[in-house]
Amino acid sequence: MKIGGGVVYECSRATALRTLFLFRRSTASSSRSVRSSSSSFPDHISFIKDVAAAQPPQHLSHLLKLLKARGESIISPGAKQGLIPLAIPLAKSSSDALTALLRWPTAPPRMEMPVVEVWKHGVRLLAKNVDQFIHRILVEEDAKNLLESSGMLFHAAAEAGEKLYKKGNFAKSQISDIDVYLLRKVGLFPDVLERKVMQHFAKGDHVSALVTGEFYTKKEHFPGFARPFVFNAEILLKFVVTSFDYPGIYVHYLTDVCCYILRGSVVLVSELAVI
């Protein structure tokens, strides 16, 4: 199903609900056994195979080690109380930010599970897959001053890190802006694109800002996520006052896009839809 510049996976309501029900029931029945299997490093791979009925990401164990090395607490994949049903918890930071995988109920066969940060009212996309997230973490670590970087993250990433990123490549690229490097060499990230839009506006380059905002909403970039459309519509509403049908955009979000993938308040979007 096409919606503006984005995509929502088309399937029968019965299929989606059945997948969701089975996943929640399996999670509840296995939660205790998964928690008790290993308090320090829960078996996320087995959980994904046996409970989520999905293919575990190849470098998931390396990502878990990486998250632990940067100070996050690895948590059981069965510890899902208060979370959206399709989130598979990985780790929690000192600020209580929860990193998880998102198990789409009806994802296309070749689509990998995205890495997300779970919010009270939804999720924020961190990376399209585990490898992309590892790659970004290593680039950002490498971009730090040598006095700030201990090399622990590269050690934790081990062979997966060596495969995805060679230390020193950021400096060799002669790209001074890390956001530009990420977009060119690693992949597209929602927060980076949003930051570029706001930077263009701050410089007074409204054309580049609006072009970047439209690029953000292209259907192939972040399929299934509503955040790009919400952000772009808010930008248009704030900076471009015309007779454009802004409420119509928000009505699309509320009627055609799963509310749990909206980052931010659904109430705010509802209000904008009736302006």
UniProtKB/TrEMBL annotation:
<protein>
    <submittedName>
        <fullName>Uncharacterized protein</fullName>
    </submittedName>
</protein>
<dbReference type="InterPro" id="IPR045287">
    <property type="entry name" value="PAB"/>
</dbReference>
